[in-house]
Write a structure and sequence with these properties.
With 246 residues, the chain is an alpha/beta fold. The protein is 37% helix and 17% strand. The protein has 2 domains: 1-40, no CATH class; 46-244, Rossmann fold (3-Layer(aba) Sandwich). It contains 9 helices and 8 strands. Helix 7 (135-138) links the parallel strand 3 (114-119) and strand 4. The protein is globular and about 65 Å long.
Length: 246
């Protein structure tokens, strides 16, 4: 074994120590990056039952169709469980897209609950007021299509506007739950997070999607975890972060 071979051997040992066996076997660089990202992310991990004891007894409703927006089945079922367990009355979602998550927030909420959901109109994507990370998703032509014509539509109010400049005054300090899943740049993630805090009523809960897979969301939440009082949890097995005041 020469020095170069020894170097390769040493690196392979380090990788073998860091990564799960299934990823080592596949050699998939994307999977390797995601695994290392998960290990590097700084927020405390917790099971949903640790955050809300008894939540595992909830019965939820899911209409799961892969690649429909809204993340994985684990993400969707976690959101549904939280909504059902907490019995939120007023909810605000930043980032509608298909409306798939919106539908499930309404579906699993109490009869008199209401969901407000905000997204940029497709034609307005060039008018976004801060940096975009994924303009192609903003340009989608039919946002909210998933809840239209369903039994849940009456519980949903669809709003259009730039989340960085929208007039939130009618909704501030009135929401029991705010879900942040809008544009993923650091600028938008931070702006939307600060907005979510203003929207929240006392005792409310904020959740974010795409941590830590989206760098802007990752950086934003790690920064806020140093600044906000209360508790941040990265929910195990999901891309969801939850925050509630102390």
């Amino acid at each position: 074994m020469n020095n170069r071979q020894a170097g390769r051997w040493a690196r392979s040992r380090v990788i073998a120590h860091l990564l799960p066996a299934t990823i080592r076997r596949t050699g998939d660089l994307t999977a390797i990056y995601h695994a290392l990202t998960a290990q590097a992310a700084g927020l405390e991990r917790a099971s949903l039952v640790d955050v809300f004891p008894g939540i595992d007894q909830m019965t939820i409703q899911i209409k799961y169709i892969p690649r429909n927006g809204g993340g994985t089945l684990a993400d969707l079922s976690t959101l549904a469980q939280v909504v059902r367990f907490k019995g939120f009355g007023r909810m605000f979602e930043i980032g509608t897209f298909h409306g798939y998550t919106t539908y499930h927030l309404a579906l699993n909420s109490q009869a008199n609950a209401h969901v407000y959901t905000l997204d940029l109109p497709p034609a307005d994507s060039p008018a976004a007021s801060v940096e975009l990370a994924h303009s192609e998703s903003i340009q989608k032509s039919s946002k909210g299509e998933w809840f239209r014509g369903t039994d849940c539509e009456a519980k949903i109010t669809q709003l259009f506007g730039d989340s960085a400049s929208f007039d939130y005054s009618p909704y501030e300090a009135r929401m029991d739950f705010v879900y942040v899943d809008g544009e993923h740049s650091y600028s938008y993630a931070m702006k939307d997070s600060l907005t979510a805090r203003k929207l929240l009523a006392p005792g409310g809960v904020i959740m974010w999607h795409d941590y830590p897979s989206q760098p802007g969301v990752w950086a934003c939440l790690d920064q806020l975890s140093k600044e906000w009082q209360g508790k941040f949890w990265w929910i195990e097995g999901t891309a969801l972060v939850l925050w509630k005041a102390a």
